[in-house]
Amino acid sequence: MIAAGCALMLITGVAEADSAAGAWINVTSNLANMPSECGNLTMLSPVPGSANVIAGVATRGLWQTSDGGVTWTNLGTGPGSAGIVNRPSWIAYDPLNPSTFWESGIYNAGGAYKTTDNGNTFVQLGSVTHDDFISVDFSDPERKTLLVGGHERSRWVYKSTDGGQTWTNIGANLPEGTGFSTDPLLLDAQTYLVNADQGWSQAAPGLFRTTDGGSTWTKVSSIGPWGPPLVVADGTIYWAAGDGLVNSTDNGLTWSRVGSGLANDTHPIQLPDGRLVGVKPTTLVVSGDGGLTWTPIGPQLPYVPAGVIYSTGQKAFYIWHWDCGNKVLPDAIEKLNYDLGPAVVTPPPEPPAPVPTDTNLAPMDNAAPDSGVAPDDAGAPDTGVAPDDSGAPPAPDTGAPPSSDSEGQ
């Protein structure tokens, strides 16, 4: 929970920046028209703590820019590196050392890779393939426990406890007839979440949770979200579901729908100031109340993007899109310079002056002073949004990769 004064500080600090947004700029640069396949420009990911941004290109691997998109340089070209030829779908960064990160991807050979040298070289992680998402147990200093979710595959959640050398399908323990288990989220060594995306299969949607490392799963929602989950700074979990989001504030035990009117199944991101950013068909939108309401920011979008990221190092938004052609689109990546600006600190109010004591007054009884405020019970705050388990199914899968940003991002 954010104190009222802090919330005011954040909102005041960004209001001036909202009115100073520039124009979208095409920064596809040397990636434009690069030979590829369906999905071509599959994802973008901001590297934490730097100005670097990584792009995924189907069959052509990962590419990085450090100059705002003027040039893109191929990663994985160091001696002995495994070649990444999948359609990159997600990058998970080590929060203590972002030069170590894990990549997942679909189609075309390996589904999971790892680098410990900023992407100069990669190692393929075992034999898993066709993976939409990868999640790492960062509570373990050795980073041994990993999860991957299968692309358009039901009951398909593979787990490794040896850093990716070997894998076991714990998704087989999910109920039969459930949707695609694409995006498992590892909360701690034994607690995981996974979506069941209905997709084109028309199987039963839902969200499932395990507290025993995947031996058993409990259905915690009938809503079947799609794409990568977002865990924000206060621990709230958000997931795209139709034209809105679902969220959980209790480690995935219960879920509620929040907001509406977003571009279908577009993954939200969190800005450094704590606000959420989503996508509507014509503009980016921002929410300061956890996704309940959304306000447009920036100029009109050049197209409906597959996703959005924010690079703190570059102080800029990036969007991207793709098609099922055999080359990267000429305008695949667009950038909007957008400085959030320094937060304007609002000083706290002065404390009230002490009330002088009159020794001639009659003594008071021992009752506690009346504050004028009714006591509050220990229940969770009312968000004003009732849980809803009637989520509409996402659009049919085209065989191309999901949109993604990174929190890891």
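[next item in queue]
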Amino acid sequence: MIAQAWGNQKNLRLLTSDWLARQRALSQESSTLPEPIRKEYEALGTSGEEAEQAFPLPSVPIVLLTGTKKNPDFPGNPLEQDLKLEMHKKLAARTSGIEHVLVPDSRHYIQNDDPQKVISAIERVVKVKRNAN
């Protein structure tokens, strides 16, 4: 059987056994996670739906950062990382003007794992916006 990953994201699928193992691991970790991170997990489905409804995106500079590091010890993570990369590639292809940057030393919290990548992305967006004015 196949289960959907990340809430209602129709294109992202994990084997049911992988999904259940992932959910068990998240449930076990959930009690130790800070409240903001726990709320982030709880809101994944809703935020995916909201992102889909935002199209077409406005014509503004966008830098999409994708962490590609995998954690083979966390159930479903290697496949989930591949699926996230696929989803981000589709987003970049669907939207003109997106600069898609892969961040190999980060999974999700790029601002913690590679803050300079985030700072550089912000600087590029500001520069493009300033040059347009």
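[queue empty]
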